[in-house]
Design a protein that fits this description.
The protein is mainly α. Helices cover 62% and strands 5% of the residues.
């Protein structure tokens, strides 16, 4: 595999990682008011910066062990990047759900699902 192919693979993997991370952040962080970014709260969609996170150290190392740069999965949305381990564990659980949805159908756009999750929270339960 040439270096060019490796770069294309990592770029595709990075794009997939960002999509899944943003869908998870939209669903979890905005829904539960963990995100403090005004732009994200206003849009009700994760749109903040992606930053390097110490939570991803093991994932980066695993990618480096197989010969990749590790940059494809190093970043997380700002709202979750520096949260506690407990909060990050919940984030990873929700992220696993979105990853499974995406693996079932890679052509699926995850953001409408995440936005719907946030919108459903805003609806009050019907009273009879």
């Amino acid at each position: 595999m040439s270096q060019q192919e490796l770069t294309e693979y990592e770029e595709r993997r990075r794009a997939d990682h960002i999509e899944i991370c943003r869908a998870t952040a939209t669903s979890l962080c905005i829904r539960n008011r963990l995100c403090n970014l005004r732009e994200c709260r206003r849009k009700r969609v994760c749109s903040g910066p992606m930053v390097a996170s110490p939570h991803q150290a093991w994932t980066v190392r695993a990618q480096q062990e197989v010969g990749l740069s590790g940059k494809a999965c190093a970043d997380l949305p700002l709202c979750i990047a520096h949260k506690s381990r407990e909060t990050f564990a919940i984030y990873m659980t929700v992220m696993g759900t979105y990853r499974k949805l995406w693996l079932d159908d890679p052509m699926t756009d995850l953001m409408p699902t995440a936005v719907m999750s946030v919108a459903m929270r805003r609806l009050s339960p019907k009273r009879s």
